[in-house]
From TrEMBL, chain A:
Keyword Transmembrane listed: yes
Name of the featured protein: Uncharacterized protein
Keywords: Membrane, Transmembrane, Transmembrane helix
Keyword Transmembrane helix: yes
Residue ranges of the TM segments: 51-84, 122-143, 155-175
TrEMBL record, chain B:
Protein name, entry field: Sigma-70 family RNA polymerase sigma factor
Keyword Iron-sulfur: no
Record organism: Splendidivirga corallicola
The organism's taxonomic lineage, starting at the top: Bacteria, Pseudomonadati, Bacteroidota, Cytophagia, Cytophagales
Sequence ranges assigned to domain RNA polymerase sigma-70 region in this UniProt record: 10-75
Similarity comment: family membership: Belongs to the sigma-70 factor family. ECF subfamily.
Length: 200, 160
């Protein structure tokens, strides 16, 4: 190594491309941005929830007026579940506090959002077949025709399973489209910030 | 730890804390421990900051004291021998010559006596001899002598 002054090494080293100040600058750059991003996600969640409640508010009287009581009560139960889920999710999201590390904060937020998504995916996997079975029982009552003989027919089960897979697939597609439209850009930003901080 | 404290004490003085911790810690996990401990001690000691000196000077003092105390505690503990390649904390790849030199300087600083490390770090951070004397609790004339001696020592280590 050349005969260099330690002052120069210190100065130049801390100004060079990937030194601790650069890491710090990256972290600093994202401190505020990360908080703003999470706030935006939170606000979008709130807007989405309000829109859902408005839609339910409009749909419910229509269903009651047309005497579609079974659908109306299902919608009521579903709305209750969504309200409960929204409160829980937003409560957890609010609990993540920016403590001493931007990267850790963003990773925690990302993990939480992935967990929410997983909950919805599991919900679809379990909920759709249950809903279809429930629908059949309701249909049986409405039509006044027992479905028991149909249960013995393998073709029935084939159609049922096919319908289940199709419904799950369509629901997953809808979920993907919905999340991508509302949160896609924010998720991308979140991921890019994490990658930037990890490689800094 | 509140966000206000973090912003005022840690974020604005992060570079100082990083540099000192890096000069005292042997490896990355140790660096993380040192950094966390410094943050914790700053949090605990925040009420003792009486605004007589600059905040950065107080941070230097606390950080140095915490690092010195950690080094001493570590020295008194039985050492584990571990074969591990050391990758300096957040140090760039080898192709970055300036960062490589800085890495060597840090390694050389780590070989100094604990108090000497503090003195040279403050000197390199362009602190005045008076500030160094205040922080380290030694006389100003002693600082001058010490700095010259340490610089010579470091140059010998770096230039082989």
């Amino acid at each position: 190594m050349d005969n260099m002054d330690i002052e120069n090494i210190w100065e130049a080293g801390h100004q060079s491309g990937r030194n601790i100040e650069t890491v710090e600058a990256t972290a600093k750059k994202y401190n505020k941005k990360s908080l703003q991003l999470v706030e935006r996600i939170y606000r979008t969640g709130r807007k989405e929830h309000r829109i859902f409640l408005i839609v339910v508010g409009v749909a419910m009287p229509v269903l009651l007026l047309t005497k579609a009581f079974i659908i109306a009560s299902s919608l009521l139960i579903f709305t209750g579940l969504i309200i409960w889920k929204y409160e829980v999710e937003m409560g957890i999201l609010r609990k993540i506090k920016f403590q001493d590390n931007t990267l850790n904060y963003l990773i925690s937020v990302k993990r939480l959002l992935n967990r929410f998504m997983l909950n919805y995916k599991i919900g679809i996997m379990v909920g759709v077949p249950l809903l279809m079975l429930g629908g059949m029982i309701i249909a049986q009552n409405i039509l006044g025709k027992a479905i028991t003989p149909m249960l013995m027919d393998p073709v029935f089960w084939f159609i049922f399973l096919f319908a289940c897979f199709l419904s799950i697939g369509l629901s997953r597609l809808w979920l993907h489209f919905w999340v991508h439209t509302l949160y896609g850009k924010k998720f991308k930003e979140l991921q890019s910030m994490i990658e930037d901080l990890e490689t800094a | 730890m509140s966000a206000e404290f973090y912003q005022e004490y840690i974020e604005s003085n992060r570079a100082i804390i990083y540099k000192i911790c890096r000069a005292y810690a042997e490896d990355d996990p140790e660096f993380q421990d040192y950094f966390q401990e410094v943050c914790l001690q700053l949090w605990k000691a925040r009420k003792n900051f009486n605004h007589e000196s600059k905040l950065s000077t107080w941070i230097y003092r606390v950080t140095l004291n915490v690092c010195l105390s950690l080094v001493r505690t570590k020295r008194n503990k039985p050492q584990k021998v571990e074969i591990r390649e050391y990758h300096a904390t957040r140090v760039p790849e080898d192709e970055d010559l300036e960062a490589l030199r800085l890495d060597m300087l840090y390694k050389a600083i780590r070989k100094l006596k604990e108090v000497d490390r503090g003195i040279i770090l403050l000197y390199l951070e362009s602190k005045s001899y008076q500030d160094i004397a205040d922080i380290m609790g030694i006389s100003m004339s002693h600082v001058g002598v010490k700095v010259n001696r340490i610089k010579k020592q470091l140059k010998n280590m770096i230039n082989g």
